Amino acid sequence: MTGILGKKIGMTQIFAEDGALVNVTAVEAGPCPVLAVKEKNIQLGFDLIKEKRLKRPIAGYFKKLNIEARKFIREVPKEQSKEYKVGEEIKVDIFTQGDFVDVSGVSIGKGFQGGMKRWHWQGGPMTHGSTSHRRVGSIGSSTTPGRVFKGHHMPGHMGALGVTTQNLKIVKIDKENNILLIKGAVPGFKNGYVIIRKAKKKVAKVIKAAAAAAKDAKK
User: Fold this and answer.
1) Domains and CATH numbers, the chain
2) Most buried among 45, 72, 85, 155, using CB within 10 Å?
3) Gap between the terminal Cα atoms of the chain
4) Could you tell me which residue, 46 or 141, shows the higher pLDDT?
């Protein structure tokens, strides 16, 4: 298995084996029942929910599977060499201490924000009678091109977007309580849902290094 679903509990600090103080994010990960097995992915569910809170088609889906209803449903890539069964539970033991993961979640919403906060504009002059300190200012030109380009940085809604933070290290695993302690910050707000996958780039680097070492050994 290359991934699991979870919930961000919050941030704290722990002491590493060498005595260093490490900032970590506590994530409740699993257990996640397998709801469907597809060609490249498997569908997982997380966080129990009362059936009466679900829409009828979703409630019927879980009733057909004979699995308790889950609130958060997502797909994660599967390992092609393994076989998975519907109803099988995926737990934190798929990871080991020291693994690197990519964590995806929805960033904290900031509401409507001006351009300086949203896009880090420098701003206008603060002195000499200027009245354009934090304003948008000119957004186009008169003749050429005579329009405003798509994607122009403007004030607007900030945050509440899908974000993935890559190559975060798992510092500690609590298998009894299904808790992962991940070094650094992960996307989202407290009690927000996240998807934890094994780091793609880190794995690619390890494979590349192993291939290079094997090539050198042949020489």
Assistant:
1) 3-110+162-218 (2.40.30.10), 111-158 (no CATH)
2) 45
3) 36
4) 46
From CA 75, how far away is CA 28, in angstroms rounded? Answer: 18
- The rounded distance, in Å, linking the Cα atoms of 36 and 94 is 19
Closest CA to 168 of 100, 96, 92: 100
Residue 33 contacts residue 45 (beta carbons within 8 Å) = yes
The candidate with the shortest Cα–Cα distance to 62, out of 35, 91, 89, 84, is 35
Per the prediction, the chain carries an average pLDDT of 87
Q: Is 93 helix (H, G, I), strand (E, B) or coil?
A: helix
Q: What share of the chain is helix, strand, coil (3-state, %, to 5)?
A: 20, 40, 45
Three-class DSSP labels, 48-65: ECCHHHCCHHHHHHHHHH
SS3 category, 119: helix
Report which secondary-structure segment, H or E, holds 204. Answer: helix 200-218
Which pLDDT does position 209 carry in this prediction? Answer: 66
Taking the model in full, what pTM does it have? 0.80
